[in-house]
Specification:
Layout lengths: L2 H15 L32 E5 L2 E6 L36 E6 L4 E6 L7 E3 L4 E2 L3 E3 L2 E2 L12 E3 L5 E3 L13 E5 L4 E3 L17 E4 L8 E5 L11 E3 L3 E3 L1
Length: 243
């Protein structure tokens, strides 16, 4: 890549990172990275996130920063906002990451549910990491909830911003696509496509059914108001997350 192209790419990345709204669009394509056979649903990731196929895996590369306001941006940033009433701001600040998620392009339901690890268990459509229902080893999430910004996210000690519960910038008690877990199955808001709340979710917070993106049906997770919030485990074979 020559200097002019590199400069333009950097300017585009900065512009996208500081945009206050989701911008669905074609996934970014880099030389040598193919979007052939990429499932259409992955085009719902916001601009500036690289999504491509590598064999039978979907690869998602993201800086992991939110495209919305937060006190954790720090005073002086374009997306900084003052803490909301009752918020307890933790000492960390949002920092760019080099997150790479590798998910099976054709996920399959396993015979049993496997536990999710601490750290990223999936990725939201705005490139932010999804975490499970724990604040740490054997630590309930309740002690951290007060530190969430008004979009329900916060950064950990290395500046990796993430959501443990419903990211209301992306989904507010609705059926919108939120993202994907590492096993390749999608995560939706609290409701089914018909506007009703799912009556029978399994221990992983999921069930089989039709969605806007999968009209013929697929196993998928639903966010819930109570634990495990996003997922109680992987219903398929998990890919990987590196950073």
């Amino acid at each position: 890549m020559n200097k002019k192209k590199l400069w333009l790419a950097l300017m585009l990345s900065v512009s996208v990172m500081h945009c206050a709204h989701s911008n669905p669009g074609e996934p970014a394509v880099e030389e040598g990275k193919s979007t052939a056979d990429l499932p259409e649903v992955y085009k719902k990731f916001v601009e500036g996130i690289t999504v491509y196929m590598d064999g039978d895996e979907v690869v998602i590369e993201t800086r992991g920063v939110p495209n919305h306001a937060s006190p954790y941006w720090g005073v002086g940033d374009d997306l900084y906002e003052a803490p909301h009433a009752g918020m307890v701001v933790n000492p960390n600040s949002i920092a760019e990451q080099n997150l790479t998620f590798r998910l099976p392009a054709s996920p399959k339901v396993s015979a049993s549910i496997s536990a999710t690890p601490l750290g990223p268990i999936g990725v939201a459509v705005n490139g932010v990491a999804l975490y499970n229902q724990y604040a740490g080893p054997n630590q309930p999430l309740e002690r951290e909830i007060a530190t969430f910004d008004r979009y329900h996210g916060h950064p950990q000690q290395f500046g990796q911003y993430h959501y443990h519960i419903e990211p209301v910038f992306l989904s507010t008690d609705d059926s919108k696509l939120v993202g994907f877990l590492l096993d390749g199955f999608p995560v939706y808001g609290r409701k089914d496509m018909d506007g009703s709340y799912p009556a029978e979710l399994d221990a992983a917070n999921g069930h089989l059914g039709a969605t806007e993106d999968y009209p013929n049906g697929i196993y998928h997770y639903h966010i819930t108001a109570d634990e495990p919030y996003i997922s109680g485990g992987f219903r398929g074979t998990a890919g990987s997350a590196t950073w």
